[in-house]
């Protein structure tokens, strides 16, 4: 018996037969587990063919199941083939009518791009223990609350989501980041929403990722509106992290959800874009906070 062919047939059947969308929790959970085990064993071509199905299956699922499917999808993006001229009819992912799925995907991708190579979550790390080249931050450590120190720009919860059950090796993480950049280059998501991803990726410590993102940013410089409030808000949000202010509901943000500011390496990529934006100068109090934090870091912008 050709067990590899039988496994491939079973995985494809479960992914295409609608088991993902069933209302029976037991059957749905079994399908997720089966696909988690079988999907990585499929030929790369078949994984690419089924990748859009993974995205469709995320809709309406609990967070843990969405994360499991995301861990299957992200490595596949490196191997995806996209049309030279992006057309809706030819695009492998049809996300135009799935805003919730797009936001879910973009949020997870941003955390993958922020994840340092070789980071281990089960160690209580300080900024000084982050791998060399990843930069440092002047924010306070999360260790005081008994939570392992997350990477710069991330929360403990976000880092735990990206690491998942089986952490990627540095080489696998590099491929994931390259796949994300390729996905953005192919215009599979709105350009307005993906600018921050390219800025983050252009600061990556791996030359292949940083070069690919930097080239894509330069090719779109004339198309990007650096005075767009959506873009500038995202830059400020990533730069500052979750500063100790109360949320709209009046409750203090939980420590495991609090995002630290990004590393100095990423900040040095963000600042030039803020300097060329008139909108950035008008956004109070973020403009003052960035100016103060930048000066306190003993870096000169002149």
TrEMBL record:
InterPro entries: Ecm29_N. The keyword RNA-binding does not apply. Pfam families: ECM29_N. Residues 128-150 are annotated as: Disordered. Keywords: Repeat. GO terms for biological process: ERAD pathway; proteasome assembly. It comes from the Eukaryota. Residues 128-142 have a biased composition (Low complexity). GO terms for cellular component: cytoplasm; nucleus. GO terms for molecular function: molecular adaptor activity. Residues 26-292 form the Proteasome component Ecm29 N-terminal domain. This is Proteasome component Ecm29 N-terminal domain-containing protein. It comes from Laticauda laticaudata (Blue-ringed sea krait). The lineage of its organism: Eukaryota, Metazoa, Chordata, Craniata, Vertebrata.
């Amino acid at each position: 018996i050709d067990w590899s062919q039988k496994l491939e047939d079973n995985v494809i059947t479960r992914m295409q037969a609608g088991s993902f969308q069933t209302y029976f929790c037991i059957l749905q959970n079994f399908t997720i587990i089966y696909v988690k085990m079988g999907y990585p064993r499929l030929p790369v071509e078949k994984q690419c063919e089924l990748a859009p199905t993974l995205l469709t299956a995320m809709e309406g699922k609990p967070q843990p199941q969405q994360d499991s499917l995301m861990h299957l999808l992200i490595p596949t993006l490196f191997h995806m083939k996209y049309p030279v001229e992006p057309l809706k009819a030819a695009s492998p992912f049809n996300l135009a009518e799935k805003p919730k799925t797009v936001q879910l995907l973009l949020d997870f991708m941003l955390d993958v791009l922020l994840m340092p190579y070789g980071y281990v979550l089960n160690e209580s790390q300080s900024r000084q223990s982050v791998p060399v080249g990843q930069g440092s931050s002047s924010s306070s450590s999360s260790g005081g609350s008994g939570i392992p120190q997350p990477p710069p720009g991330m929360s403990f919860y976000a880092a735990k989501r990206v690491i998942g059950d089986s952490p990627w090796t540095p080489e696998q993480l590099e491929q994931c980041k390259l796949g994300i950049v390729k996905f953005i280059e192919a215009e599979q998501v709105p350009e307005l929403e993906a600018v921050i991803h390219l800025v983050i990726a252009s600061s990556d410590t791996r030359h292949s990722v940083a070069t690919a993102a930097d080239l894509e940013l330069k090719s779109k410089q004339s198309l990007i509106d650096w005075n767009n409030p959506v873009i500038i808000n995202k830059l400020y949000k990533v730069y500052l992290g979750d500063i100790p202010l109360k949320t709209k509901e009046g409750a203090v943000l939980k420590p495991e959800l609090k995002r630290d500011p990004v590393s100095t390496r990423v900040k040095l990529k963000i600042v030039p874009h803020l300097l060329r934006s008139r909108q950035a100068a008008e956004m109070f109090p973020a403009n003052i906070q960035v100016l103060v934090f930048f000066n306190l870091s003993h870096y000169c912008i002149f």
